[in-house]
């Protein structure tokens, strides 16, 4: 459902993505790992049409939603209003299906998004993405700045949506342990290039990947 071929994205003279190839099939949950500045957010922003390729192509089949890095909620609006804005393009105004999937949000619906904890705000960003009834979800840094328990909770919801509702997921993460725990396959991006890819079980055995991303020696 995501097909990226020989993608080149530049910021002025700087090349952020250099001939990247990546694909995610229907119903798959695939991880994209890499250090700061590797180009992960650039890829997410290109998939969602915020950035335009300098060369190569990106193809997304089905409705795509993107949970951006840093969540980017409207802090002065309530949780419910943030959700409703997420449904605007798809024409969905009723957040109750999202409350069924993420029941913790129902209790927060009248709170201002800006006063919530990081984990709660990430839950709102997740819910806002679900308001557009996506078939493909790109999650940029699910765990960034979150307590481990909040990360585990969100990851469990993601796995449930993938397994039970067939949601296709590209999970962008710096936390390889988390990504390997929930995804079958992964790509490793460094300095704008894919330097490793394959089943997570195999990548975890790769000494270079283990050293860089799993804290192995
Ligand atoms: P992080 O996890 O830190 O966000 P990332 O893997 O998502 O890292 P990107 O944000 O995609 O990396 O950045 C890739 C490269 O492009 C970096 O060298 C970054 O400095 C550069 N870059 C990102 N955004 C811009 C911009 N708006 N203008 C110029 N250069 C940029």
- Counting helices, strands and paired strands, the structural category is alpha/beta
List the ligand species.
adenosine-5'-triphosphate
The portion of residues assigned to helices is 25-40%
**Overall pLDDT metric:** 94
The strand count comes to: 9
Strand order of the largest sheet: 5-6-7-3-8-9
Strand residues, percent: 25-35%
Overall, the morphology is: globular
Can you put this structure into words, describing what you see?
The protein is an alpha/beta fold and 217 residues long. Helices cover 34% and strands 28% of the residues. The chain is built from 8 helices and 9 strands. The strands form 2 sheets. A 6-stranded mixed beta sheet has the order 5-6-7-3-8-9, with helices on both faces. Strands 2-1-4 form a 3-stranded antiparallel beta sheet, covered by helices on one side. A hairpin with a 2-residue loop joins strand 1 (2-11) and strand 2. Helix 2 runs parallel beside helix 4. The model has no long low-confidence stretch (mean pLDDT 94). Bound molecules: adenosine-5'-triphosphate. Adenosine-5'-triphosphate (ATP) is lined by residues 11, 14, 16, 34, 36-42, 69.
């Amino acid at each position: 459902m995501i097909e990226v071929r020989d993608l080149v994205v530049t910021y002025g003279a700087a090349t952020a993505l250099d001939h990247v190839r990546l694909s995610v099939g229907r119903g798959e949950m695939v991880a994209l790992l890499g250090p700061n500045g590797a180009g992960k957010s650039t890829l997410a922003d290109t998939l969602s049409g915020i950035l335009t390729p300098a060369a190569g192509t990106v193809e997304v089949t089905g409705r795509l939603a993107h949970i951006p890095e840093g969540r980017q909620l409207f802090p002065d609006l309530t949780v419910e209003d943030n959700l409703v804005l997420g449904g605007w393009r798809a024409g969905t105004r009723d957040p109750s299906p999202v409350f069924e999937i993420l029941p913790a949000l129902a209790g927060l619906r009248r709170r201002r998004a800006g006063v919530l904890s990081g984990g709660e705000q990430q839950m709102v960003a997740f819910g806002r993405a679900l308001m557009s009834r996506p078939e493909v979800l790109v999650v940029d840094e699910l765990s960034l700045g979150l307590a481990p328990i909040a990360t585990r909770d969100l990851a469990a919801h993601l796995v449930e949506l993938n397994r039970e509702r067939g949601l296709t997921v590209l999970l962008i993460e710096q936390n390889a342990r988390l990504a390997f725990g929930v995804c079958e396959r992964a790509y490793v991006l460094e300095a704008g290039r894919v330097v490793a890819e394959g089943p997570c079980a195999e990548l975890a055995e790769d000494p270079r990947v283990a050293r860089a991303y799993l804290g192995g020696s």
